[in-house]
Specification:
291 residues; mainly alpha; two-stranded antiparallel sheet; 10 helices; lipid metabolism; ELO_fam; Elongation of very long chain fatty acids protein; transmembrane; membrane
Length: 291
């Protein structure tokens, strides 16, 4: 009874403008979808694909990735014109709960961003259908699985103001990210234009540092914005920074080590590699000298 009362008292503080929008009445639907996603990509999907050949989805993936580029660009545009590129402050920005055109546009854009987080589940679904299970890492599943649930609370209570810097910046990074994925899906002949993948990961890490800094600055200044939400977002920035940093070290530092040895084909562990022909020639030369 106490938890029910606490839940209702919290929900009473939510933004009434979004109360009747799909999936916004309760977090239960979002939680259910996120859990279903994790179950499918980690268990049910691989089980269904076990005795099936991988699907060839190149055309679909090319279309999907470039549609996501357009969607991300639209999010950046609408976040920009409704506040972040016009009259929003990067130091402190309260939420406008009015029905003014800019305030409603910001709320609708935030809701659209929330829905897009579900669309991004297709990133993992394509891995399952193509049986690329090594791509379905813990980082990937956590990142995709937790985002709709996290964003739901922001849209429910603060669909505007300081917190939306996170989604504004994230949408910009996704323009670059899905452009890379789209070019990669075209085929191996595009690889010569895709040598900047490690810098894409580095950009994502910088993104999380900016989100962390932008969020936690409110701990040291007066601002009419719920600090609890900024701590929530800032902690996400820290979590994902560490996860992406670990991925970067394991992936690119290891590759750099391999590239160092592969770039010097005659060297292995400090020794000179000699071919069989060279050994035979050396052997004959020594025998000739001895005779």
């Amino acid at each position: 009874m106490g938890l029910f009362f606490l839940y209702n008292s919290i929900m009473e503080k939510s933004d009434k403008r979004l109360a009747d929008w799909p999936l916004m009445s309760s977090p239960l639907s979002t939680i259910t979808i996120c859990l279903a996603y994790v179950y499918f990509v980690k268990h049910l999907g691989p089980k269904l694909m076990k005795n099936r050949p991988p699907f060839q989805l190149r055309s679909l993936m090319i279309a999907y990735n470039f549609v996501m580029v357009i969607i991300s660009a639209l999010l950046v545009y609408f976040y920009g014109i409704s506040g972040w590129l016009t009259n929003y402050s990067y130091k402190c920005q309260p939420v406008d709960y009015s029905t003014s055109p800019d305030a409603l546009l910001m709320a609708k854009t935030s809701y659209f961003y929330f829905i897009v987080k579900f669309v991004e589940f297709f990133d993992t679904l394509f891995f399952v259908l193509r049986k690329k299970y090594d791509h379905i890492t813990t980082l990937h599943v956590i990142h995709h699985g937790i985002m709709p649930f996290s964003v739901w609370w922001g849209v429910k209570f603060v669909p505007g103001g300081h917190a939306t810097f996170f989604s504004f910046l994230n949408s910009f990074i996704h323009i670059i990210m899905y452009t890379y994925y789209g070019l990669s899906a075209i085929g191996p002949h595009m690889n010569k234009y895709l040598s900047w993948k490690k810098y894409l990961t580095a950009m994502q890490m910088v993104q999380f540092l900016l989100i962390f800094t932008h969020s936690f600055q409110l701990m040291f200044r007066e601002c009419n914005f719920p600090k609890a939400f900024m701590v929530w977002i800032g902690c996400h920035g820290i979590l994902f920074w560490f996860l992406f940093s670990d991925f970067y070290k394991k992936t690119y530092n290891k590759k750099d080590g391999r590239s160092l040895s592969s770039s010097s084909p005659n060297l292995s562990n400090g020794a000179v590699k000699i071919s069989n022909d060279q050994i035979e020639k050396l052997k004959h030369a020594i025998e000739k000298r001895l005779n």
